[in-house]
Amino acid sequence: MDWTGRDVVSIREFSKDDIEFVLKVAERLEGELSKKGSLDYARGKILATLFFEPSTRTRLSFESAMHRLGGSVIGFSSAASTSVKKGESLADTIKTVEQYSDIIVIRHPSEGAARLAAEVAEIPVINAGDGSNQHPTQTLLDLYTIKRAFGSIDGLTIGLLGDLKYGRTVHSLAEALAFYDVELHLISPELLRMPKHIVEELREKGVKVHETTDLEGTIPELNVLYVTRIQRERFPDEEEYLKVKGSYQVNQTILKNAKDGLKIMHPLPRVDEIHPEVDKSEHALYFRQVFSGVPVRMALLGLTLGVL
Amino acid sequence: MPELKIEVIPEGTVIDHIPAGKWLKVIEILGLTKPNGGTLLIASNVPSKKLGRKDIVKVEGRYLSEEEVNKITLIAPSATVNIVKDYKITEKFRVGIPEEIFDILRCPNPNCISNREYVKSRFHVVSKEPLKLRCHYCERTIEGDEIPGNL
Ligand SMILES: [Zn+2]
């Protein structure tokens, strides 16, 4: 597959073959990297990271990926320090930056910004989050993490926990998992259930979906538990929030009945939805997940630059 | 066709097969409610084989452009348009729903980049029946009353 010049804006545009291809290339690069320490596929290439809103860990992950590929990085980490603040249009910023670089990674607070940037730019654009819409590299690194941990995604029983109503990460992940032969447990408070249209779509695609509010009772079923944060502002009153928060905290007590091989994931940063005591257990996969971001982003950068 | 016999106009546009009750929205969208918008002949709740009941709007002295027709399509997908010249129908077209809709509908998401930058709005048709559109930029879907509300 030749991906040279391709934009990565939305996971919606990925077929199962596309996903599998990226994961395969990422695995190859991870292997090469651990053998050689650093690679030089992107030598002489420049990545521009345009972060119109701060997201330090995503930016560092992309920058690390580009450096690991032997390329270099320019960019900004918040709109405050740029001409955007003076009222420059996104289109003008993109047209300017592409004169200095070979590929653009953009994060922007408005939904659709990455799509617009991709339409304006001649060079490839990778979406690192557009408002509450898409964050496709997160979805791909989540899939990669699961695949590396289990060898295969097919056949797994996966729990998605937390704010399933507003959480863009879990929506995209669930939609991507629908390509695979998986069973999904959607675990959330009543108020924060997965939107009906997504649940229906998953079922139409043949995924066995269970919706529940009961974390403790569901844990023994799971191979993977994907935890997301529940935000206070989603609840009408403090009392209700605290009740929910308490019953969804992942700690050693609640993990008593878990399968031995259960892996816990989290897009990070976490607050207190996973107790730190879990970090040292065999279940914790979330730091590994952070690491996965690098080979996956290396794959996407390298493929769209056409240097692999 | 007996249904078109109702008050033939000399010059203008006849919009037929509007779902019953939608005539007011049709003339609003077309900007025909203004005092200088020309004479309108409206027939509402007309018996129709196809729709049960339908509305008809006749606009004297004005030929609708294709872009305007597209706007009607979104609230009256069953509508047909007849262009009348010298008491005769010279053109007749059934308006279908295109695969994509450009520059007609505003995205209801205030945080969508299409509402913040100089960009022409663009929607993909996800389903025609019932009509459901997805914003090309923010990827939110829009359906039902939200569609005419954002024309
Ligand atoms: Zn939009």
Q: How would you describe the overall organization of this protein?
A:
Chain A is α/β, with parallel strands linked by helices and 308 residues long. In chain A, 38% of the residues lie in helices and 15% in strands. Chain A has helices at 16-36, 56-68, 90-97, 113-120, 136-150, 168-177, 196-204, 215-218, 238-247, 286-305, and strands spanning 46-51, 72-76, 103-108, 125-130, 157-161, 183-187, 208-212, 224-227, 263-265. In chain A, the strands form 2 sheets. Chain A has a 5-stranded parallel beta sheet with strand order 7-6-5-8-9. Chain A starts with 15 loop residues before the first helix and ends with a helix. The mean pLDDT of chain A is 95. Chain B is mostly beta strands. Chain B is built from 3 helices and 9 strands, in the order βαββαββββββα. Chain B has helices at 23-29, 66-75, 146-149; strands at residues 12-19, 40-48, 52-60, 80-85, 88-94, 100-102, 122-128, 131-135, 141-143. In chain B, the strands form 2 sheets. In chain B, strands 2-3-1-4-5 form a 5-stranded antiparallel beta sheet, with helices on one face. A 4-stranded antiparallel beta sheet of chain B has the order 6-7-8-9, with no helix packed on it. The radius of gyration of chain B is 16 Å and the shape is globular. Chain B starts with 11 loop residues before the first strand and ends with a helix. The mean pLDDT of chain B is 86. The chains are: A alpha/beta (308), B mainly beta (151). Zinc ion is lined by residues 107, 109, 112, 114, 135, 137-138, 140 of chain B.
